[in-house]
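At this stage, I put together one protein's amino acid sequence and its backbone structure tokens, which the following lines show:
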Amino acid sequence: MIKFLRRLLGRGPADTPHAQTLRRLEAAKSAALHPTLYAQWGVPDTFDGRFEALLLLVSVEFARLTRDDDSRSADALLSAFMQDVELALQASGVSEAGMRKKMRQVEIASFARVEQISAALRAQSSSTRAILNAMFNGQDSAEPTASSLDSLVHRLYADQRGLDAALSAIEDLS
């Protein structure tokens, strides 16, 4: 009974699949909010810019987990990310009536971006164009930023620690 209550209250063992998913999502959030991305690299410091940075990092972890044949964890990460997005939209004032339509749009766009980044990582090719299109509306003037982000995602994809290496990778690439 005590174990059940601890799990219910989120105080269960740290190595459960759910706890690992939450840890991965928190690592992505922490890295996506790193000031260097905005102050030095030029990621737009807006709601959309922060969303795209977070989605990019979630995409890398999704691709890494899928590569390592851990599709259950990869799917759980995307699900947790979408739940966070829904909470953010609710907090920003999206009505209950419009939530279903808005979430469907966000899911379709997000899953397409995850697949674009995953495909580039699997093929060991550049994701710069996909990043430019998603984060900067295709503006070529943002190519240095997109190139830095491309270097980051490839480095994290290659690192067995995945998102746990994100903060140090950002610092190293700056």
Summary: Residues 54 and 110 are 11 Å apart (CA to CA). Residues 17-173 form one domain.
